[in-house]
Structure formats: C-alpha cells, structure tokens
Fold each of these.
Amino acid sequence: MVLATDGAADIIDHTAPSWPTIAGHNPDELAALLHRLRHWEATTGPTGSVLPRAKQHDDKTIAAVTFVRP
C-alpha cells in the first residue's frame, strides 16, 4: 500500500513509475523518488505550465507499507 500527499501524488501521476512499482520501494528508493519529485517541480514545472496546480510548491510525503501474513 502506498500513501502519498497530493503534492507528491500529482507529480507521480504525471512523471514517475507506477504505483505498484513504488509500493515495492525501500526507504532509500522512496527518499530518492521524493528528491526527484522536488527537483522536477523546481526545474521542469516551477510555473505550473507543464502540470497546472494552485501553488508553486507543495509538501511531498510518501509511505509504502507491506503487509505480511503471520
């Protein structure tokens, strides 16, 4: 399961790997993904012309949870 704030989810939907792929990410991969999202927002879409949004920057949080049967 992946939980993400809209600031991360909107850019992921526009640019990143699929949600099932992200669900398998480890903490380091999630941190790298957040870094890429922040970089994309700052360099590719800072004005919102590529991905329209209400504000230039938004918070970005992602959590991936794996359930294991006992």
Amino acid sequence: MRRALDVGGRPKLWKRPVTFETFIRTILEQQVSLSSAWSTHSKLKQACPNKRVSPKAVRTLGQDGLRQLGFSRQKARYADTLAAECLAGRFPIRHLADKEDDQVREQITSQLGLGDWSADMILMLSLCRSDVFPVGDLALVNGAVDLGDESLRDRETLLQRSQDWRPFRSVATRMIWAYYLQSRKKKIPGT
C-alpha cells in the first residue's frame, strides 16, 4: 500500500448522492469505460426535463428513447425497469442509508441488472461505508496485480489479501484506484 500511496497520492473521496440518477450512472458504468458511460449519462441528462434524471423522465423516454441516447438494449431495460420499481414504491432509494450493508446489498441486487459490483459502488461511493471491497472491479484487480503479483487476479486470492485491510477496505480500494489511474495517466470523467 505504500507504493500505491507514493504513486497515486492521497485518494480522493469520490462521493455520489444516494439518488436514482446515481443508480442509472452505475448501470451505465457496468463493463464499459468510464468515458463511455459518462458520454451516455451526459446525453441522458440533456434529454431529461431540467436536466434532472428522474424515474418519471426515464419512463417517459422508454427503452427505445434510452437506446437512441446510447444505452445498450440490456441497460435500457435495466434503467426502465428500475424507474418503474421506484415509481411504484417498491425500491425506495432514500431509505437505503438507514440499512445495514447486507440489507442494502440484498435490496440492490434484487433489482434487474444490479449485481454485487453495483451494490459495492453504491455502498462505497454513495453511502460511504468503510469496509467495501469490490472484487469484481477491473481497475481494482489490475491495480492490485500491478502492486502485488499476478496471483491477485484470482478472486479468492484477492479477497484473502484484502482481509489485512479490514475494516477499511474502502480506503484500500480508493488507494489502489488512485494508483491505477495515476500509473496509467487516466482521469475520471466528470470529477
């Protein structure tokens, strides 16, 4: 971790609000570059009334409208379904902050298209929970491999290594992200 700190510097506290828009942004960031996700997110904001990404605005656009903005077929379906769930009151985002990590994860992963990685991002970046380790995050894995050894590509090996950083694995993750970004001269779009 010393090398991560030396190269990446003090990690930034990237924080996102606990909102529907953050969930949509998280959906967009799944398995694509952050630049690509940011571009589609920007188009979505422009298409929404008052540039406010809300469940009603997403439902109004519908899956076809979302696809015209750059959403994949799957992500358009996920976003539209999430909007419907929020409007029906079955997924009350504002109450997530009051729940334990396991309860938050269960509620998030019960939604179509939102898995453990999405739950990790919300827990860490929006709810600021201290001991989240998104083992499925490619930047985390690649950064950890660069800092350690190739064996850290294995999920179980990486999880085992992360035990040393408890109960502050979110800090360790941010340090590895900062190292990864700096070592590759990358920036997070929109920050």
Amino acid sequence: MNKRLTLNSFYTLIKFDEIDSTNDELKRLIYHSSGTCEGTVVWALCQKAGKGRRGKQWFSPPGNLYFSLLLKPETSIQNTGQIGFIASNTMADIIEQYSNHQIKINLKWPNDLLIKKHKIGGILLESLTSLQSTLLLDWLIIGIGININHYPPDNPYPVTSLFKENLILMTSDLTIFLYSFLNSFYVNYIKWKKNGFSFIKDEWLQKAEGLKKNISIKLEDKIVSGYFETIDETGALILIDPNGIKHKITTGDVSFG
C-alpha cells in the first residue's frame, strides 16, 4: 500500500488522543456546530465510553482503531442497514489486503467482522430522521471499532485481535489503515447511491458466516432458530424455521451451531 496515501476530499477528519465516544462526539457536532457536514470523521486513539450495539460498552484501549463517520445519504429509514453492510464489507476487504490475505474475514449479520468465528470488530449505526418526515433518514453515524492489538478480556462471546491471530499488518500506521478504508468506502458509497444495494448484497453474502446453515437469533423476547436463507433488499435476515415458515428479522443477536 502507498505510504503517501491521501484522504479523499469528501472527508473532514477530527482526531483525538482520548474521548468518551466518537459517536457521541459526532452527535455533539451535529447539534452544536453549524459547519458540520457529511463526511466528517471523528477518530480517537482511546475511548473512555466506547459504544457497542444494544447499549453495550466497547472495549477501547490504545492500540486499536476507533472512529465514526457522518453521512447524509438522503434515503428512507428502511435503507439504513444497507449502509452498514457497505461498511462491514469494505472493512473486511481492507483487513484482508493489509494482512496480505493471510486469513479470510467473515461477516456476521448484521454488522460484526469475524476471524474463525471470533469477533475482530463491529459497527454501530445511529440515525437521525428528517424533521419533515420520520420515514426519511437525515443523518447517519457509522461507528467502527477494530481489535488490532487488543481484545476484551472475560468476554461472554468469542473475541480476538489481529495480534492474537498472529496477523501482521503490512502497515503499522493506523492513519494509512484508516485512510484506506475511508477511500474505499467512499467509492462503494457512491456506487450504492447510483446503482442500489444489489452489488454490495452479493459481495456481503459471499462473506456471510452461517449462510445456508442453521442458526439461532436472540430477539427482544425470544430466541428463534432456523435456516439462514439470505438477506433481503433492506438487509433484513431471512430465516426459515423448522416448520418451513419464513421470518424477516430486522434486529437480533446471531449465534451459530
């Protein structure tokens, strides 16, 4: 990779040595700074209150990658999840490139990155709807955390880091790694705007962990199990239960085996 890599002019990068949460900082900028624009990126070397899905805390010591990206995609709230698939697929490609394709990254629905079924990173989407219509997406924040040198201890789910997996990145410079992701994401984001979700859906499914196998999904009030058939055009998971009934799952925690 080119060590002189520059960041696409679409982005405005704000870097912190330490912050509470990169997602929360973007929210503050939206509400309190009139100059905040699409493409603003908040990057922190350490987070004191990193955020994961469903209110969980994200383990954020120095040595890993933590950043949040602000978008204004001008689409319906129903399509929010599509952009998360763009981000996860793009990040999987970048990790594979920088590890010289030493290992394959798989993607766990809806937004986790895995190595050998162990979580290496995750994506948190937070959206704001339009003042004119709650059906239209106004702002979207994409928060991304990647375990490069560290992973959370005593985690109830299998987790890992690139360092633990003995994957030596071709660059030790997190700036280059971040720039590479953002530049690639921009290309895919524009392609999605022009051509829709089908191209990224097909690419994501090629990396999907558990596809065409039996899985379980923990919902708010129950656990459902069945055959992971595909994802639909909104990114919802299509599950076929043992009775042959199809279920459209829009949120939940997937487990395998």
